Amino acid sequence: MFAVLKTGGKQYKVQAGDVLRVELIAANAGDKVQFNEILMIGGDAPVLGSPLVAGAAVQAEVIDNIKADKVITYHKRRRKHSSQRTRGHRQKLTLVRVTEILAKGADKSDVAAATGTAIARRAAHNNAPAAAAEAPKAKRATKKADA
Fold first, then answer.
1. What span, in angstroms and rounded, lies between the C-alpha atoms of 144 and 147?
2. pLDDT in tens, 71-95
3. Cβ contact 5:38 at 8 Å
4. Interatomic CA distance for residues 140 and 95, integer angstroms
5. What contacts 72, CB < 8 A, 6 or more positions away?
6. Would you state the pLDDT for residue 80?
7. Contacts of 89 by beta carbon, 8 Å cutoff, 6+ apart
């Protein structure tokens, strides 16, 4: 049995036991995560989603958070000013090992959903103002009050 899942803007065809390098996920090494955006489940009776397969998921274990190989970009402008610039970038990735493909009952499992770091940052940012508003703020003392 195999599944086609979508994460980080990319699609992956996976089977149980596969090791994937996906975009950075908000999880630590050893955590179990669940990918809920399943486009297709293949095997004896293939199931196509429109666009997603309802109730399906892929469960995986996070191995490590790594960085990809360095990508060098070089820009050179030759007319008039002869400027040049070299930049490097290393994409952050997460290594995951697929443990199980669930065709049904994914919503009943207790495994946390695999969310990208941008989604996790937005969720934390949206929840933070509510917690900060509840806590009383200390007022700053002024010089006139001290005198």
1. 5
2. 999 988 887 777 888 999 999 999 9
3. yes
4. 48
5. 86, 87, 88
6. 76
7. 70, 71, 73
Identify the burial level of 45 via C-beta atoms within 10 angstroms of its C-beta, where 0-12 means exposed, 13-18 middle and 19 or more buried.
Answer: exposed
Q: What is the pLDDT of residues 28-68, one digit of tens each?
A: 999 999 999 999 999 899 999 899 999 999 999 999 999 99
Q: Tell me, what's the pLDDT at 105?
A: 80
Report DSSP letters for 64-114, one per residue.
Answer: EEEE---EEEEEEE-STT-EEEEEEE--EEEEEEEEEEESS-GGGS-PEE-
Q: What angle do CA 129, 133, 137 make, to 5 degrees?
A: 125
Q: Which of 69, 57, 37, 52 is nearest to 108 (CA)?
A: 57
24, 92 contact by CB (below 8 A):
yes
Sign of CA dihedral 49, 52, 58, 63: positive
